[in-house]
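Example 120, ligand FE2/S2 (inorganic) cluster.
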Amino acid sequence: MPSSPNPALPAAHTYYQRHIFFCLNERKNGEDACALHGAQQGFDRCKSKVKEAGLAGVGKVRVNKAGCLDRCAGGPVAVVYPEAVWYTFVDNDDIDEIVESHLKNGQVVERLVLPADVGR
Ligand code: FES
């Protein structure tokens, strides 16, 4: 049974240790959205690095696509659960640091955390 990184959650209630969701939203009317700011590249990079590091799978890490997460002003954005930490990123180095530090070792990458007042 996977262990829970969050003491408030019994291990029996978890399936993945950590789950990261990337907003890949694009708007047909051409309005700004994460898809216009490298969201797909970030998702692809994360998926690849998680797999390469042997972190993918049950009891470990899952990387998922998401639609709009309603924090568009900070786009591209991704959120990691169960810690509920929101990130923004600009390049592969940022993604690599999120994978190595947070997804693998549970350490939040403070420099990439989305400020609390960033919304839609
Ligand atoms: S378009 Fe990405 S959070 Fe809204």
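Summary: The mean pLDDT is 93.
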